[in-house]
What does this fold into?
Amino acid sequence: MPISHFQEVGVEPMAEDDALGNYAGGACGTGSCSTGCCDSLACGSCCNSCGCESCCCDCGYVHRSGIFGEFLLIRPRDQEIAFAVPGQAPTIVNGQPQIAVPQGATLVLDPDYQPGYRVGVVGALDERTSVMLAYTTLEAQTETGRTLTADEIAQNMSMFPLLLHPRAILPDQVTNVATQGRMDVDFDILDLDTRMLLYDTDTIAINGFGGARWANLDHVIEASYGVNGATIVKGGSQYDGLGARGGLDGEFRSQSGFGAYGRGAMSLMYGAGRGDYLQYQINNQANPQVFTNAKYDRLSPILDFEMGVDWVSPGESVRFALGYMTSVWFNMVTARDYMNGVITNQFDDFSDTVTFDGLTARAEVRF
It folds into this structure.
């Protein structure tokens, strides 16, 4: 959430107020520092209108300039892919493996929670309006594999490949006894927003914001099968998009400085997704068995939600927040989708959904 401020401005008064709250000292006479003035977020004008140099009034929610950094612990969801399964050794007929009978746990690539970060700067245009520039990035990886034991090999077991093209010609008399897989899911996001106060009370404020977003999503899958002459398969996708975004955020603040916040936004991204697939023998990469790629134009919505708790120091120069975020990317061309499409000879109508969710921990310094 962009930097903001519930501010109480106070200076030691020159004289006591009377029972009605009217300022009773100096040139102010019986002038009142009214709440109406403070509601308009012009506390200084309120005090100076009666010619005094000091007063005390609650000026409510005020946008402030500052910088922030945020640690993310999030994971990609809905992108897991199975790449091998152990079973009775398939026979090779005309260079093509026959389907094995599964006899063991399927090997799946599924990234867990990974660290990322967000950094940004905020500039207050006035008490009600500010602009924010933020950069967010994540690099999530996972890898796993398995090598059959001597007893399993003696029982005619093998690792059946699930990501090889079914019509690629493989060497006869080869049994896959080992497999290894790796997945990388990375994204980069750049947001530029203008934020405006829509509603506020002594403890609650609601802001609206709108601006532009650039987003990049990279997805890579790699698997190897065999031993002493392995077959390698690689699949990848990349999305680049630019579009408009908008949303609302809300903040609750108690007198102790502890509070809660929430935010929701939608981005409508215009961009392109690309997919590629490559299969080759490890000793003959220059002559791949299967290779193809394609580009697909996409209009891709992205929904972002976040909520959590926070604490603001006295004077509101420092803020700490802990929350949970979810980001859903729609209508994507992903590596999983494209690889499965190549294997099944389905080369269009790719429309996958990628979800990221996890914890956020944020620190802000306000000026």
